Amino acid sequence: MSSFSGQEDFMHFEAEAPLKDKLKIFKSSQFEPDGYVISKCQNMNEKEIKYLRAYLVDLRKASAEEMRKSVYANYGAFIRTSREISNLEGQLLSMRNLLSTQGAIVHGLAEGVRADLHKNADDSSEEDLLDSEIKELSNMEKWLVEFLENLEVLLAERRVDEALVAFEEGEQVKKEATERGTLSPAALLSLQNAITEQRQKLADQLAETTSQPSTRGQELRSAIQALKKLGDGPRAHTLLLSSHHQKLHRNTKGFQSWSSSSCGGAYAATLCQLVFPTVGRAAHDSLAVFGEEPAFTSELVTWAVREMEDFAGLLKRRVMASAAASGSLRVAAECVQICLGHCSVMESRGLALSPVFLRLFRPYIEQALTTNLKRIEQSSAALAADDNWSLAYAPVGVRPLRASSSPAFLSTGAMSQPRLSSSAHKFNSMVQEFFEDVGPLESLQLEGAALEGLIQVFGFYVNLLINALPASAETEEDPDGTISRIVKMAETEAQQIALLANASLLAEELLPRAAMKLLAGKTDDLNGRTSGRQNRLPEQREWKKRLQRLVDRLRDSFCRQHALEIIFSEDGDIRLNSQMYTTLDDFPDEPEWFPSPIYQELFLKLTRMSSFATDMFVGRERFATILLMRLTETVILWLSDDQTFWEEIEQGEKPLGPLGLRQFYLDMEFVILFSSQGRYLSRHLHQVIKNIIERAIEATASTGIDPYSLLPEEEWFADVAHIAIKMLSGKANFGMERDVMSPSAKSISSVVSHGST
């Protein structure tokens, strides 16, 4: 048990350590793989071994990525170093030739000294030796003449392979002649100069061959291979890349001359077919001739990146710039997807070119995204100016919604075909198309910008809905001086509730459904696990909360407008004032007990809105309930916070008397009862009403009157409120108890008339 706990601690430490510390143990000169594995796996069970293996695999991937970043960061240094090495090789070759010449001179001097020392030797033996040496020198000089002539012929006939063999033979003879002294210093120097001169001549021929448009494939590789064998590898590799560059330039130039009518994805696809195969062949040729030498690999990658930048510049001028400016997100996305698809093929050849395109194209995609969102705003404003704010199913010309199979955002009560006003239908359709265009661009990591953009355009549309409310409608002056509304006004309560239906359905169902097209590809990792989805759930919830807060702004504006319509008259006078209650005690007779007209109007308004909401908020009854709750709270909270009202009640010249207190108590119980029956009585609202009742009772008690001795039982208030609800709802039979006095039919008629729209 202790070993398992220790292993867990080790794994936790390794997971938290930086990459440099993780790799430190593997860089040690004393690292032994077998010993490392035995030390880690000796006391492990199968599950822990699998965990360790997964950890090592992840570490290998991170190490490879770190090495790639390091290589990319030092491309310039690699190229400079390789060029300096090439120059150094040339200088060393010159030094070797110089040393060979000096060695020949020294050898000649030594031979002269040796001849002087043996001047007195036997004449006959000396003559025999001299004849033998003269004969040998004659043969070597004869070979030298033939060798030089043969080399000239091979180069003239461009027999490269035979010339390379001849160079090797000449180098071998030169070496033997230097060791044995079979060539005179002058002949040896002549041989060396001839080999050097002919090598350079062959190198120039090969360089000229690589620059010819007709040289390609195996012929190009053979020429580069021969140039490498001549000892000039850096030049050979540069010429290889230059040859492919020239071919690429010719192909793209010829394509542009006849592709003036091509545009968009077709242009990008055809251009990619010209560029990427050429870059791929260059990588294949480089690997075939030079292998994986770091200097040449770095030069290849640098060259490929430069070619991709040129290609991207051509594509930007022809497609991306205009697409970004016009907001053609689908065209821009298609071009990027085509390029990234070809980049994935190049990955198998060791060229990671995707970061180049992501870096170069991202600003244009972002510009197209911003322009597209701006167009959605402009279209929404134009449609809202002519919307009649009546709900209907999707009209002809607006794409229908497809039911989503993901429950991440959708409630079970939502219909696949929603009822919206005309501008909301079009807004939803444009948002769907927007996310379909952005969805394929997962590699650009644009989901954050796209979701933030959706928040902005939805906020813009909510502002349009707020401006459609009569109390907040904005106007603009036309060139002829007339005043016109920016948004068509929602005049009736049904139209105003339709505004809320638009916003709530978009925020709760339709916009999250559209966002799923973007987020669906990001929620699962490659192994089908749900870690990605779990990581994104908090972000998705926060995004939905931001949408809901925008809807809350519209709902608060709606409630504020209707609360003010109840509290204030058309002339701006306050109807909900203290005189409603303080003047009741001025009359000798008790009034006919019934809720005050302002609360009757509130009840009738809430009843009408509840009827509208039942039809418009199908499957979203909770939103309708909260709407009615907030409207009721807005009126009561205004009463609770009205300092003028309470100053006159508590400190005014005419205090709140017994009859005024009973009417106030009845009004509050009436609000509690109809809110409770409508199921929109919140705990907060109930507590606020109880508090202001207590405050009114204390105000009456401060005058020296015992309020509790004057107030009837609570059942009386409940009965009167219940009868009032029935009468105002048209469900009463007017058969009331004797203790309850009903208002006249005339007063009921006036209340209903006053509360209707």
UniProtKB/TrEMBL annotation:
<dbReference type="Pfam" id="PF08700">
    <property type="entry name" value="VPS51_Exo84_N"/>
</dbReference>
<keyword id="KW-0268">Exocytosis</keyword>
<dbReference type="InterPro" id="IPR032403">
    <property type="entry name" value="Exo84_C"/>
</dbReference>
<dbReference type="GO" id="GO:0008104">
    <property type="term" value="P:intracellular protein localization"/>
</dbReference>
<dbReference type="InterPro" id="IPR042561">
    <property type="entry name" value="Exo84_C_1"/>
</dbReference>
<dbReference type="GO" id="GO:0000145">
    <property type="term" value="C:exocyst"/>
</dbReference>
<dbReference type="InterPro" id="IPR033961">
    <property type="entry name" value="Exo84"/>
</dbReference>
<dbReference type="InterPro" id="IPR042560">
    <property type="entry name" value="Exo84_C_2"/>
</dbReference>
<dbReference type="InterPro" id="IPR016159">
    <property type="entry name" value="Cullin_repeat-like_dom_sf"/>
</dbReference>
<protein>
    <recommendedName>
        <fullName>Exocyst component Exo84 C-terminal domain-containing protein</fullName>
    </recommendedName>
</protein>
<dbReference type="GO" id="GO:0006893">
    <property type="term" value="P:Golgi to plasma membrane transport"/>
</dbReference>
<feature type="domain" description="Exocyst component Exo84 C-terminal">
    <location>
        <begin position="142"/>
        <end position="353"/>
    </location>
</feature>
<comment type="similarity">
    <text>Belongs to the EXO84 family.</text>
</comment>
<keyword id="KW-0813">Transport</keyword>
<dbReference type="Pfam" id="PF16528">
    <property type="entry name" value="Exo84_C"/>
</dbReference>
<dbReference type="GO" id="GO:0006887">
    <property type="term" value="P:exocytosis"/>
</dbReference>
